Amino acid sequence: MGPIELDTTLGDLVTGHPGLARVLQRGGLDYCCGGQRRLGDACAEAGLDAATFLAALRDVAVTGEPEPWTELAPDRLADHIESEHHEYLWRELPRITALVDKVRGVHGGRHPELADVAELVGALRADLEPHLMKEERVLFPMIRELAHAERRPEFRCGRIANPIGVMASEHDRAGDLLARVRVVTDDYRVPADGCGSYRACYEGLAQLDADTRLHIHKENNVLFPAVLRIEERLTEGVCG
User: What is the DSSP letter of 170?
Assistant: First the structure.
């Protein structure tokens, strides 16, 4: 990747330097669903001093190394996302739901915000699990077929851009729910009277937030654009 500048997009920052994801998240900059925004614009919207934040990003980037997923072909990247992030969500969503319910049952009287946490986590799970299934059963098989095609396949849904648009819209919804969980939990801050389960619950939610944002970034800002470029190239071949 080239030098980090204020006109670099947030998505390109994380693709080139995955370690910057945490820095952007701490600054309140949405690099997954908002990955096409330029760093300078995002800093201005968040009320951050752009020069200071740029310097912090450059400091972290110096010590970071690109991760292998940034160089994967689209079909291999889909495999990586499924094994790395889908399996995580299938495992963690039920566990975190149970933890939230447990903590709410014990501490809900003193911390009424836990009712909101439970509602938001329930909504997130209700959205994400069908989303994962649609990607695994429909979109990712299409991506694998497209990646090895010499002519544009005739998909039942028409262009692969159609299901990608649906998935991207669902990512926006998940990103909004995660942002609301972060607000309700005061940035996953465990109260003074919180027990070990309370701490484990909020740590799990924080990890879910970070992993899901990186997951969405890999799809929105790396996988989907690459797939659309392949479809466009194959379409031009058909038209030609």
Answer: H
